[in-house]
Amino acid sequence: MIQAFNLQKKFSSLHVLNGIDARIEQGEVVVVIGPSGSGKSTFLRCLNLLEEPTGGEIVFEGTSITGKRNDVNRLREKMGMVFQQFNLFPHMTVIENITLAPRKVKKLTKEEADDIAVGLLKRIGLEDKTHAYPNQLSGGQKQRIAIARALAMSPDVMLFDEPTSALDPEMVGEVLDVMKKLAAEGMTMVVVTHEMGFAKEVGSRVLFMDEGRIVEEGTPEEVFNNPKHPRTQDFLGKVLSY
Amino acid sequence: MDFTFMYKYYGFFVNGTAITLLLSFFGVTFGALIGVLFALMKLSGNRLLKSFSTAYIEVVRGTPLLVQLYIVYYGIPRLTGIDFEDLTLGIIAISLNSAAYVAEIIRAGILSIDKGQMEAARSLGMSHRMAMTNIIIPQAFKNILPALGNEFIVLIKESAIVSIIGIHDLMYNTDTVRGNTFRPFSPLVVAAAIYFTITFTLSKLLGILERRLRAGDSSI
């Protein structure tokens, strides 16, 4: 579904991505782990071109998206993204947040978009917040709404950029539950996270990144129980000892 | 203090206030419109537009309004060969001056919106323009309303300067009354009261608008 070939990203003199080759298949849940500054988020943000790669190629559903000629907005309709900081639109109610893009981008009528939104709100268990404003919600609720907002565009793949890192510990679970459900329904997902439990339980494949490279990849069992690369061993040793 | 001159001269104040209001209204409107234009130019990727807008803002902010007024008053008719009315020239000078300040206020307002908002909008497939009009500008507008209101109030007060080119605004007519009645002081008190009434009313109206816009912000 998504392929990255020798992906490079440079910020002036800083090399954040040093040649990433990766393949994400339909229905997979790919979890990207690694230390801070390893380029995980940048890699994810390159996939929907929020960051423009400085080299290499990305192919999405059979078309190269890194070329100049392609329609970025079209591409992004097909890739939902969930951010660490939620990024809900604070001046709009929950339902307006969810229906804005379907109405403006997909040109759905208000009724059609509202139907989709109500269905999604039920799925995430927040139908009572339909007309609330984002700052009347808890962090966990905000993030669930953000997931619903992305799903409202019925994307083919969902990108999660540390979706639980800005949450109070007690709210992490409710967000991960929504993501688990989504994975069980067969959604293709790329998840950058520090939640090793989620990676083990839900991930179909784990990528370990360090210094802008994918150092190791494999099934969760392979990577967590039997890491081969010393860098992975070191990282997991530190992270899992708690 | 003796205000008996008002019986005879109140018409001067009424007419002067009307001109001041007219001048301010068009000054604010055109100033805001041109200001938006300069703000967008300064934020655009086009280097030419950007440097033009930057230069304009710096020059206008760095020179006295009085000098700008004279330049417009003597310069524009000479340049264009058209015999504009004084009032028109006054409005042009005031608008061009205000535009520079409004542009900076708007630019700062747009930049104050977290970049995650633009990213979220774009990640949903919205175009840059769609994201600007639906997400960024509504939020920026709310943030800049106090600064914008302040600029409008400054403009109303500063408009008194056009009396110098012979526009019969509140200030000019006040001077006329002072001359005619040989009372140098009391007409000024009347003028001050009128200016204050205008700006205070505007300030209250903006306060109401601001509260209404913030209605959605009430947090738990």
Describe the fold and architecture.
The complex is a heterodimer of chains A (242) and B (220). Chain A has 242 residues and is of the alpha/beta class. Chain A contains nine helices and ten strands. Chain A has helices spanning 40-47, 72-77, 94-104, 110-123, 139-151, 169-184, 196-202, 220-225, 230-240; strands spanning 2-11, 14-24, 29-33, 55-60, 63-64, 79-82, 157-161, 188-192, 205-210, 213-218. In chain A, the strands form two sheets. In chain A, strands 6-7-8-3-9-10 form a six-stranded mixed sheet, sandwiched between helices. In chain A, strands 2-1-4-5 form a four-stranded antiparallel sheet, with helices on one face. Chain A starts with a strand and ends with a helix. The model of chain B has no long low-confidence stretch (mean pLDDT 93). Chain B starts with a helix and ends in a 7-residue tail after the last helix. The longest helix of chain B has 39 residues, at 5-43. With 220 residues, chain B is mostly helical. Chain A binds chain B through residues 48, 50, 72-74, 76-77, 79-81, 83, 85, 87-93, 100-101, 104-106, 133, 135-136, 146, 149-150, 153, and chain B through 114, 116-117, 119-127, 130, 134-135, 138-139, 142, 216-220.
